[in-house]
Amino acid sequence: MLAGAAYGLGMGAVQPTLNSLAVPAAGRERRGRANSTFFMAMDLSQAVGALALGAVAGQAGTGSVFPVAAALTGTSLAVYLAFLARGRLAWRHPADQHHCLTIFCTAPEC
């Protein structure tokens, strides 16, 4: 019960925060697309994560799920930081004329 409450509080805090960062970066004319892409990615990641980690638990036991999840999280962070260091991620103001869907800038000058 406590774990479910912690999960709900975490998702309740993280999801709107990330959405409020990603959607305005898309610009006014693309906000609907950015919003739907954001929520589709969140839902897909939860579904794929549950299936993948369920398979890990079935093969190696439930105790192995936590190190695998931690390794995936660390890998995701490393990929994010690599993109950030190369300048491929940019927080764009909506008034900019760059074509950004969310935080990933696709303009040549990025």
| Number of strand elements | 0
Order of helices and strands: HHH
**Gyration radius over CA:** 17 Å
Please indicate the count of domains. 1
* Tally of separate helices: 3
Distance between the terminal alpha carbons, to the nearest Å?
A: 46 Å
Shape: globular
The largest sheet, given as strand count, sense and whether it forms a barrel, is: none
- Unreliable segments (pLDDT under 50, ≥5 consecutive)? none
Q: Tell me the fraction of residues in β-strands, as a range.
A: under 5%
Would you tell me the structural class of the helices and strands? Answer: mainly alpha
Question: Helicity range of the residues?
Answer: 55-70%
What does this molecule look like?
The protein is built from three helices and no strands. With 110 residues, it is mainly alpha-helical. It has one domain (2-85). It is globular, with a radius of gyration of 17 Å.
Short description:
With 110 residues, this protein is mostly helical. The protein has three helices and no strands. Helix content is 65%, strand content 0%.
